[in-house]
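Page 37, continued from 36.
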């Protein structure tokens, strides 16, 4: 801080004694010190810098009663440390600082959302092999990967998705066929249609417990995907067609559904022809529409006791399925639940089921025996159509109870001759 010298603070005795003139000379020398700074750079000698005509500032200093080297002179010029000054006024607010995670944005684009947060897109990063998505931009959270954000980037081999991303947009990584691995953070809640479609080199994926909605074909065309771990507890599917969540994954042979999962969403593994084994945890209460339809390698299924609902077409066209055990608490089995299971030979419907839904066993050509509970109130349209080998229907009630059941006029159409065995005959 620059020293302050005020004449009005000097007493008369100091002026009489020449103190005032002495101080004034010192002020002049301080002005000259600007030139003397050149000495520190080795550009000039202090003796060549002129204070009074014909004399250097250093010589003037010596003539005023000082002694010492030129370095002493320079130190003298600095003076004593001044008193602390008053606090200055508050300045104007500066621009938001860059976040540590966003110091290298790699040319990515960011789009402001209605929520006030950002989504991210590829921008100028199209030639990169590795992309690191920051979790903040301009001081605000990055919460989404935009629709087609990294669409068709053949050079992309690795992407780091930070915790805080909640949604992955439609076709976000479509066609990134050299992307070798995808790790989804626990913050992800929404994965939209075709998000990783055509990512041919991905071999395994884990879907976290906080995912609440998935679209169709999110891994469609991932021809080397062999294993999926599914931990989403209460996920719903937005798939409206017969196209499965995982689409055409020709090598997908195993899905692990972890404890804690309550709902298996619609179309989860619809069309996954190579899945040969399925274990459903005891925490599951609902298995969604066509969740395992066309899983053509499945041979045996056991539905745990906690499950209450099997939706429409849940195991339709599982052409290798020979055995299915349905838990005791199931109270609803949807339309066409087992339609086209051409190798299924026998099945027992649990006691809590009240309605045998339409076409439930449509074209189950190997079905030869079925057990129905006494509490059934309705049998719907073409339940056993084309069940050409069904010879025996075991009804665990009386003949009067059987005759009181509401039956569609075509409930037994296109069946071979069959026999009803009532409880008294079993």
């Amino acid at each position: 801080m620059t020293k302050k010298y005020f004449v009005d603070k000097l007493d008369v005795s100091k002026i009489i004694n020449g103190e005032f003139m002495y101080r004034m000379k010192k002020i002049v020398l301080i002005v000259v010190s600007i030139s003397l700074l050149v000495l520190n750079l080795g550009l000039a000698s202090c003796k060549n810098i002129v204070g009074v005509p014909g004399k250097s500032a250093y010589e003037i200093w010596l003539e005023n009663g000082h002694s010492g080297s030129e370095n002493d002179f320079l130190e003298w010029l600095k003076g004593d440390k001044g008193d602390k000054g008053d606090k200055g006024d508050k300045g104007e607010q500066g621009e938001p600082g860059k976040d540590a995670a966003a110091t290298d944005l790699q040319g990515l684009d960011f789009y402001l959302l209605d929520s006030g947060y950002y989504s991210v897109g590829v921008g100028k990063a199209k030639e990169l092999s590795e992309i690191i998505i920051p979790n903040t931009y301009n001081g605000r959270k990055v919460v989404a990967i935009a629709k087609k954000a990294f669409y068709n980037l053949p050079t992309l081999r690795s992407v780091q998705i930070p915790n805080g991303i909640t949604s992955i947009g439609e076709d976000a990584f479509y066609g990134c066929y050299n992307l070798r691995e995808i790790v989804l953070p626990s913050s992800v809640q929404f994965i939209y249609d075709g998000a990783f479609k055509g990512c041919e080199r991905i071999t395994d994926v884990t879907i976290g417990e906080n995912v609440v909605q998935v679209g169709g074909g999110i891994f469609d065309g991932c021809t080397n995907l062999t294993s999926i771990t599914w931990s989403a507890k209460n996920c719903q599917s937005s798939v409206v067609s017969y196209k499965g969540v995982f689409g055409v994954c020709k090598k997908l042979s195993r899905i692990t559904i972890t404890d804690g999962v309550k709902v298996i969403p619609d179309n989860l593994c619809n069309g996954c022809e190579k899945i040969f084994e399925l274990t459903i945890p005891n925490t599951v209460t609902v298995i969604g529409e066509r969740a395992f339809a066309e899983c053509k390698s499945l041979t045996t299924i056991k539905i745990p006791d906690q499950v209450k609902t099997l939706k429409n077409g849940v195991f339709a066209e599982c052409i290798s399925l020979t055995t299915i055990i349905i838990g005791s608490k199931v109270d609803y089995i949807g339309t066409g639940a087992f339609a086209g299971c051409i190798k299924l030979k026998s099945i027992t419907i649990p006691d809590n089921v009240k309605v045998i839904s339409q076409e439930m066993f449509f074209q189950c050509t190997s079905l030869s025996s079925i057990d129905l509970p006494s509490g059934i109130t309705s049998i719907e349209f073409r339940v056993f159509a084309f069940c050409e080998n069904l010879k025996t229907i075991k009804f665990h009630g009386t003949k009067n109870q059987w005759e009181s059941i509401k039956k569609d006029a075509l409930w037994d159409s296109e069946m071979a001759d069959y026999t009803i065995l009532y409880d008294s005959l079993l």
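Confidence is low (pLDDT under 50) at residues 1-22, 34-51, 94-103. Flag for discussion at group meeting. The longest helix spans residues 19-36.
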